[in-house]
Structure of N-(5'-phosphoribosyl)anthranilate isomerase:
Amino acid sequence: MSRLAIKICGLSTPDTVGAAMRADATHLGFVHFPKSPRHVEADQLRALAAPVPAHIGRVAVLVDPTDETLALLTATNALTAFQLHGKESPARVAAIRQRFNIPVWKAISVKTRADVESAKAYTGAADLLLFDAKTPEGAALPGGMGLRFDWTLLRGVPISLPWCLSGGLGIDNVAEAIRITGAPMIDVSSGVESAPGIKSVDKIMAFCKAAQPS
Ligand SMILES: O=C(O)c1ccccc1NCC(=O)[C@H](O)[C@H](O)COP(=O)(O)O
């Protein structure tokens, strides 16, 4: 059985980056979206990622980014993937992948089975699909709100791309979420925070332990 991949998203301090590495996270997420309490500028992202070894993924989380923003982030030389949380079409995802020569992950906002099915359109365009809970119309953020969706919606859907389960995961429900969905990868943000945008070292450690009970 291959190892569960774990992404800790929305990191913005050196100590919580260190905690995620010690907890054996496989991917670290850095949000570049000014409306988010987790927003980091490109220079901050570069500094946070500097001590991270090459085998740990470093993912920039973005919402309908312009090419200018993507170029700025690419210039940090710190990233292994872009994660897109806006209304990026399959054609836009493919164009970003081609232009910036970096894996592109597409977040799929899920409330219904049709939302899950819609992910098929990204085959050949995205490198990975991240199934996340749909946030309410007019919400401040399209992710990182601690909302979960009905995990059984993922059952029986043939997904030909690598994928990740996200949305409302926490220390108390992550094992059940993995059992129900068979997710090969999980992503968490607010479930390891003490307040919006404030990651907790203790919660990061506990989450990673709960996800991979020995
Ligand atoms: O986290 C944010 O602030 C954010 C802002 C804008 C777009 C996406 C954002 N987060 C994306 C993530 O990958 C989160 O980890 C994911 O939505 C799960 O969040 P949570 O339910 O809080 O664990």
Observations:
- The pocket of LARABZUK is lined by residues 9-10, 29, 31, 33, 36, 38, 61, 63, 85, 132, 141-147, 166-169, 187-191 (CB under 6 Å).
- The chain has a mean pLDDT of 96.
- The chain has one domain: 5-211.
